[in-house]
Amino acid sequence: MMAKEAGVFSFSAEEAAEEILKYRQDGWRIFELPKGISSRGAFFEGVRSTLPLDPPLLGNQNWDALADSLWSGLDALTDDMILIVWPDSSDMTKNASDDAEIAINILSELPTSLGNDDITAGNTKKVAIIRLI
């Protein structure tokens, strides 16, 4: 993979360290979710404690509210290159596979939707997600 790419990528910890460094050197704003996310509640809490949300997210039940709040929070940033790192993403896949699939889908939609001129009214962003597996 080449730094500066938008999209969703999966790497081993060693590979991810190199890629994250490339993004950092190229000026991307980097958000790293906490390690050990293995449940729906932990994912919601990790997003709430790490990423910009607009409006603030209450509770751990509504995936649509999470997706909307996360999208709006990232859209409001002045940064136009954003990297989200999810360490140990396989923990949630193993322990809460259905919730992990939803979480991955929400993150996977961000690069396309935030990169769309029509959706963002011209305020597009490059968004990359790195999942450590």
What does this structure look like?
It is a single chain. With 133 residues, this protein is an alpha/beta fold. It has a four-stranded parallel β-sheet. It is globular. The model has no long low-confidence stretch (mean pLDDT 93). Belongs to the barstar family. It holds the Pfam family Barstar. It comes from Allosphingosinicella deserti.
Give a short synopsis of this structure:
The chain is an alpha/beta fold. 50% of the residues lie in helices and 17% in strands. It is built from six helices and four strands; from the N terminus they run βαβααβαααβ.
Write the layout of secondary structure elements.
Blueprint: E1 7-11, H1 13-25, E2 29-32, H2 40-50, H3 63-75, E3 81-86, H4 89-95, H5 97-114, H6 117-120, E4 126-132
Parallel strand pairs: 1-4, 2-3, 3-4
Helix pairs in contact: 3-5, 4-5
Write out key terms for the chains shown.
4 strands; four-stranded parallel β-sheet; Barnase, Chain D; Barstar (barnase inhibitor) domain-containing protein; 133 residues; alpha/beta; single chain; globular
